[in-house]
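Protocol step 4 of 5: obtain the predicted structure for the target chain.
Materials: sequence only (see below). No template structures provided, no constraints applied. The aim of this step is simply to have a reference model before the mutagenesis design in step 5. Sequence pasted as it appears in the construct record:
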Amino acid sequence: MTGIPASFSPIQLHNRLNRPVWIGFRRAVQSGREMVFLCAGTEGTAQVSKNFETFAGQIVREFRINPADVDFVELRFEGDERHWYRWHAQWVGSAPMECRVEPVTGESGRRYLAEVLERTVQAA
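Step 4 output (structure tokens):
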């Protein structure tokens, strides 16, 4: 559970090898859509990029989130730099399929995500 920013709550999930891992987790509602923020911190076994399908399925089932109404966003750190990624999936029930990720490259998009995350931290 190392390297998870204070703005995230640690949550224990199981990775694709069914091993328990800790990741940073934060939920927000913005413009009527649920946003789930994830951050792996520095724990190698919790890499979101290798475990997204597994993590997303567990989160949707555990929190009873409608997959059609949720956006998953990952925050990664490289040194002091923040990198944002939006995850997309085709859902079959509560199982994500054909998952893909795209970096948020625009300054306005990165600023928007940081503001949504900051607002949810202040409201908590």
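Step 4 remarks: Helices lie at 48-62, 107-123. Strands lie at 9-14, 20-30, 33-39, 70-78, 81-92, 95-103.
Proceed to step 5.
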